[in-house]
Design brief:
By secondary structure, the protein is an alpha/beta fold. It is about 20% helix and about 20% strand. A hairpin with a 6-residue loop joins strand 13 and strand 14. The longest helix is centred in the first third of the chain and has 20 residues. The protein is elongated. About 30% of the residues are buried.
Length: about 475
């Protein structure tokens, strides 16, 4: 055995055995030592995402660092924690890395991510950093390990973001509270930092951390909103005639979040902000007839069939959406719910103009005359998160900006495009096997297109000298088709 091989295989960061003597139970999950705080440490508390930290930070060092982010943004602290020690030392405290605990995960992965959470926390604490354990759980079968490594009476942190109702998803309160109440019994925490609005049923000494005031946009703009925290938390009554608006319940944000609950984000439901969603839920066997407007201002009808489970399984569009190169009129879409949300298939086109009878798909004809057209403002995006969700669902979007029309085709596959197009965007497949197409104006011109491999690349694409991420909530959306 060479010295190099010996050093590698005996390296504690390879073996992860530094804390075995302090590990809990048979899994040897490291204990994160209980950090001591005073109540004043939590007055006006704001958090800062790990991806926003920097060395020698003097502007935001009164915040605590959180990891309620996608795992890929902080995998580095697991692989090489020493690299981040000096970077994290300026901050008031650090929440242990919240590696995902989705309910759909393999139990071994859930155990592994619990170990990684506690190991990183214990390691940072061993270097003199105050660490607050972040607690996550899956279903009840995780309760035998997901609370280990946290001494009784510790201050802990949780987030309700992923399990709160938002967008098209119902809350997962019942799931969350079952684990939360188990945590109270097993850990008896001194206090609980709650990132995002707590559920009313949550008990304990809760430190509510406002989701919006901790978001990146306040940091980027140099705001110092901590002076408002005493009013937001109810510590002081609002001054008379003040301009402060207290937001309760879900607060929309453009920040990426992840953690526990369902990886799909909870059961899908029609959004009150998107009246068009209502057509996708109904009485089993019925067919809903609704109208919409395409990019040319033409009204067209849609026939949506509701399957046996009360969710749409098929839809016919009597239009080419102003894109005859991509759609016939009429054309059909099958609707798949296997991922927890409605995913429309690529168009089933009929070039000869002879589509099969609806009875080819529908065994019960029960047409509901719900012919109320939806106005264009209902299509507009209120947040970047709304736009990202539309892209994830495979939505085709048409919009106008500064007098010009644009359209975005989402999640195209190799079967959707010509060989000529494929040659242009082959590099996009190297990223994730799918891509997105932005086409200016509605006339097809292969030389007037932009191909993107990710949603972020779409958001960074410039139209009239402005990035889409900066204008998408201001453009006029004329059609949103999935």
């Amino acid at each position: 055995m060479t010295l190099e091989n010996y050093n590698y295989r005996t390296n504690p960061l390879f073996l992860r055995n530094q804390f075995d003597e302090k590990g809990d139970d048979k899994y040897k999950i490291p204990n994160i030592p209980k950090a001591e705080f005073t109540d004043s440490d939590f007055l006006g508390l704001l958090l800062l995402g790990f991806d926003r930290t920097k060395a020698d930070d003097t502007k935001y060092n009164e915040r605590m660092v959180h990891f309620f982010l996608y795992d890929y943004k902080f995998e580095g602290i697991w692989k090489n924690p020493d690299k981040y020690i000096e970077k994290l030392k300026p901050y008031k405290a650090v929440l242990s890395p919240d590696f995902s605990m989705y309910r759909e995960m393999n139990p071994t992965m859930q155990l592994y991510n619990t170990f990684r959470n506690r190991f990183c926390g214990a390691y940072l604490a061993s270097k003199g950093i105050k660490v607050i354990p972040t607690v996550s759980w899956g279903d009840e079968n995780t309760f035998n390990f997901c609370f280990l490594g946290i001494p009784t009476g510790s201050t802990v942190a949780v987030s309700t973001y992923m399990v709160s109702e938002h967008g098209n998803h119902k809350d997962q309160k019942e799931f969350f509270l079952k684990g939360y109440n188990e945590m109270l019994k097993r850990i008896e925490p001194e206090r609980i930092i709650c990132y995002n609005t707590p559920f009313p049923e949550m008990e304990g000494n809760i430190v509510f951390v406002d989701y919006e005031l901790s978001s990146w946009k306040y940091q980027d703009k140099g705001y110092t909103p901590s002076k408002f925290a005493k009013y937001i938390t109810g510590e002081l009554p609002l001054p008379p005639d003040c301009d402060i608006i207290i937001k309760r319940g879900y607060i929309p944000s453009q920040k990426e979040e992840k953690g526990m609950g369902s990886a799909h984000g909870g059961e899908w439901q029609p959004s009150p902000d998107k009246p068009d969603d209502a057509r996708l839920i109904g009485k089993p066997g019925e067919t809903k007839t609704t109208t919409s407007t395409n990019s040319k201002g033409e009204t067209y009808t849609r026939k949506t069939h509701i399957g046996d489970d009360g969710k749409a399984d098929f839809e016919r569009h009597n239009t080419d959406h102003g894109k005859p190169n991509a759609h016939s009129s009429p054309h059909d879409h099958n609707i798949d719910w296997s991922k927890g949300y409605p995913h429309f298939s690529k168009p089933i086109n009929y070039p000869d103009g002879n589509p099969p009878s609806l009875k080819h798909y529908i065994t019960t004809e029960n047409i509901m005359n719900n012919n109320t057209p939806y106005s264009n403002p209902d299509y507009n995006f209120k947040t970047i998160s709304d736009f990202k969700w539309a892209m994830t669902c495979g939505t085709e979007i048409q919009f106008t900006w500064k007098g010009k029309a644009y359209c975005i085709f989402a999640k195209l596959t190799r079967e959707d495009i010509s060989q000529e197009q494929m040659n242009i965007c082959e590099a996009c497949y190297e990223k994730n096997g799918k891509y997105y197409n932005i086409l200016s104006d509605t006339e097809y011109d292969i030389n007037n297109e932009f191909w993107a491999g990710t949603i972020e690349e779409i958001l960074d694409f410039e139209i009239e000298g402005e990035k889409i991420r900066d204008i998408i909530t201001h453009v006029e959306v004329t059609d949103r088709t999935i």
